[in-house]
Amino acid sequence: MSDLSDPSDSSDLSDSSDKTTPRASNKQIKYKLRSTYKMKLLRKETRLSLALALMALTTNVSAQEQSERTKSVYLELGGASNGIGVNYDARFKEGSPWGYRVGLGWGYGKVSSLFGNSESVRAYSVPMGVNYFLGGKRNHLEMGLGVNIGLYNRHYYEYHLTPSPENPKVAAINAVQKKDNVVAGFGFANIGYRHVAKRGFQFRVGITGGIGIINAEKSNNKFSLMPYISFGKAF
Question: Which of 16, 70, 131, 207 could be joined to 91 by an S-S link, Cβ 3.0–4.6 Å?
Fold first, then answer.
């Protein structure tokens, strides 16, 4: 019997298998090269975006540090706050040396006499006024005028002579404790130094003169010189 298989057929099959294998390898290589290129391109774009974002943030922070801060919030001890107070301060417009302040203050005082009489006063007040700056962006000589209007809660004693029922010529002294609420106010003028740091920290120190304008006798605010110091944040 003759062999039906043709030797040429096997050679053709082997040739075809040899030709398909390198073609598949080339496709894989091209795919890997394209993937690697895309990854490198994505990394470059990401780095560029981060660099631009960092540059923009740095520029913005630098611009804020260099620009003039026209508003501030600060805690004040003494001065126009008449004790301790929180105040808001701002320029009327950017670049103007004129500005204003308004806040809330709380104070406590006690007065005693040689005869043992004592009176204590608690004050809840609103200091408000205008001010003017001389100097640069960070260091100022500040001058201001304003008023402080508040509610004064007084605790005091009244003394009465009461004749003795056994001997009318002898009198006893009776102390009666009383309290009342009085609306009072004083005008003030201040002069001092103000410093604003690069990052917005604010420091103030100076002296305030005050004179009573409403119920001065009842609020113990006839005339006074009050030093002040404050710490706050400018923005």
Answer: 70
